[in-house]
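Project standup — Tuesday

K.O.: blocked on the structure for the chain from last sprint. Re-posting the sequence here as requested.
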Amino acid sequence: MTEGRPGDYRILHEAALRDYLAGVPELAAALGGGPASWSVAEVGDGNLNLVFIVKGARGGIAVKQALPYVRLVGESWPLPLSRAHYEYLALSKQAELAPGLVPALLHHNEALALTVMELLEPHIIMRKGMVAGTQYPRFVDDITTFMARTLFFTSDLALPAAGKKEGIAAFAGNHALCKITEDLIFTDPYRIAEQNRWTSPQLDGLAAGLREDMDLHVAISRLKLKFLASPEALLHGDLHTGSIMVTDSQTRVIDPEFAFYGPMGFDIGAVIANLLMAYFASAGHERSPGERRAFEAWVLETVEKVWDGFSRKFLDLWRDGAAGDAYPVSLFPGEKGAARLEAERQAYMQRLFADTVGFAAAKTIRRIFGLAHNIDFELIEDPQKRAISEARAVRLARAMMVETGAFPAIADVTNAARKLRDWRQE
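H.V.: unblocked you, prediction finished:
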């Protein structure tokens, strides 16, 4: 349900939120009991929004409200409330294409920039579980299904040109969120920027090196151009282990407010980058030497399975359901044509893998030298250990971005990570 009138926006703190929910009959019924008995807790630990968990006698819900500014920075950085609208659109589309892999939508008020979703319990943010060394057996199958289906079915491989262009148009107004990505991921870490930060003084030299490395500047600029100019499919736009909630048996992707049409490798690379960062951070969370080796082996195995599983599922969809205007089957008749089309599919996936490698590198570097960092590294209390873990990740990321051709397969990425597990800078 979507409602609200322009000009109705106000920030809903606990009392106001309780009153609002009481006025929506289906939500009040889902909670049960009287509004005074509901527990309301603000639990948002992200960079942008308010997030509440509300529980009543009958059940619970999650409520997310966009703020008119970046929460991490404050009112000095205004941000349009329309991002809640794009998040709602993205969640709706993702629920259609990948059912059961996003939270159920219960209510949306566009004027209040407020969305109510099912309460995910006992799910936790995947990043927090990985910091603790937890393995998630369902994750690979679920995330590869989510990415393959949401990316394929919003691409030119599955859609007629008009349908694809309508999709692009529907999300074109989310440019303020895209601008954040364009600056914080593709530009700021490579120049002096007020909001940059890193583990100092340990990584001061690395930070200065980023600003002087022209090969890296060319590589990141090419990736930025791809991000700007390649609307290949509808992206989640911020698909990392902090935007995924998990249990041993379930995976739910949340927070697609950065959604837009862009290069597919950006989403896939984000997942792989965050797994690699968890791998490099793991040594800093050890209480005794070697205690997390089994977890680290699982992480690298997961990196490989994410790409392999995504690639297999994406290709299966392409072979079985390609109704889009790209690569029309009528141009590839007979056995000879089918063989040539299959060869082109493999070439397409190789190009997509190269994009994935580069974007994974970009996502890694921004989380170590940009504004918003990962708790994978941040919760390593000893700054020296943290800096060593981060330097290993940056060393791999730089190679992945500048020497992408040296990583023709996902095993080349994991092998390079394995070799850097105990590397120390001179």
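K.O.: great, moving the ticket to review. The mean pLDDT is 96. The chain is about 50% helix and 10% strand.
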